[in-house]
Amino acid sequence: MRYVLQLLIILFFSFCGELLHHFLPFPFPASIYGIVLLYISLELKIVKIENIKAVSTTLIMAMPIMFVPPAVGLLNNLHYMKAQWPKYLAITFISTFVVMAAAGWATQYIIEKKKNRKKT
Amino acid sequence: MSTTNFISDSAYIGVLLTISSYGIGLWLNKKTGISILNPLLTSIILTTSFLVLAGISYESYNEDVNIINFFLTPSTICLAIPLYEQIHQIKKNPSAIGIGITSGVLASIFSIFGMSLLFGLDHTSYVTLLPKSITTAIGMGVSEELGGIVPVTIMSIVCTGIIGNIFAEKFLRIIKIKNPIAKGIAIGSASHVIGTSKAMEMGQTEGAMSSLAIVTSGIITVIATSVFSTLI
User: Fold this and answer.
1) A50 plus A88 within the same structural domain
2) B139 touches chain A (CB under 8 A)
3) Whole-prediction pTM
4) Which of B62, B83, B176, B198 lies 20 to 30 Å from B167 when distance is taken between CA atoms?
C-alpha cells in the first residue's frame, strides 16, 4: 500500500506538469514542469523524500526501457535517416567534444582564478 | 490462425520483447564490459530486428507497449529526487559550477547551430539534434516540443553518451583539465548518464559533479533551446 501511495504522489505531479504545460505559453515539456514542481515541494518539505524515494528509484532505474518504444519509431523515419545520417553522426561526434571542453575549461578557469585570488 | 498473426495480435509480446531485450542488453554489457554495447542500444536494435523479421508494424507494436509509454513522464519527474539530493554539491563552488554548466549548454547549441548551417540542415534536423547532450528523458521532450524527430534525437543522445563514456578520460587529459570538479561538470554536461558512469569510475567528486550536471544542464537546455530553436 505504501508503494501505491508513492506512485500516486508521482502521478499527481505528472498531472500538475501536464496542466502547466497546457496553460503556460512556453515550449517546455510537461515533465520539466513536473520536475520543478516536485523539486520545490521537496525543498519546502511539502513532500518528504522518504515518501517517494522507493518508487522513484525503481522508476529511474527502469527508465531506459521506456526509451525503447519511441526509439524503435526510427523504423518509420528510415527514408529520412538514409540521406542524413553521416551529417547527424558528424555533428553528434564533434559537438560532444566541444561541450566537454567548454564546460571543463570554464569550470576549471573560475576555480583556478578563485584560488589565485585567495593566495594574493 | 497463422503464427505471425498470433504473435502480432498478442497483447503481451510487445512488452515482453521490450523488457527482455533490455535485459539481454544489460547482461551483454556486464559480461563484456564494452561501452559500445550499451544496454539501451542493444535493446533498440534487438526489438527493431524482431519487429522487421516478424513483420509487425511499428504502429501495432507501439499500441502494445502503451503501458510502458505511460510511465515515461512520471519517471522523468522523479529526476527531481537526484537533483534534490545533489544540489548541495553546488555550494562548494556555485559560480564555477553554474558558469561551467551554462557554458556547456551554450557551446552545445552554438556548435550544433554552426554545423547545421555548414551542412545545410533544415529546421527539423536542427531541432532534432539540439537536445543531444542532455539526458534522454528531457531531451526527447524538448525534441517533441520543438518539432524534431524524436527517434533520431534518442539515437543521437545515446551515441553522445557512448562517445563521452569512451573518450572522456583521454580527451580531458589532452586538453589539460585536471580539477576533479571541472572533470565531473565536463562529463555530465557533455554526455549525461552514460558518461557519468565513467565519471564515477574516475572518482567520487567527478561522479557527484557529473550527476549534478545531468539534470541541471537538462533544465538550462530546455530554457536555452526555447530561445535559440528559431535560429534555423
Assistant:
1) no
2) no
3) 0.94
4) B83
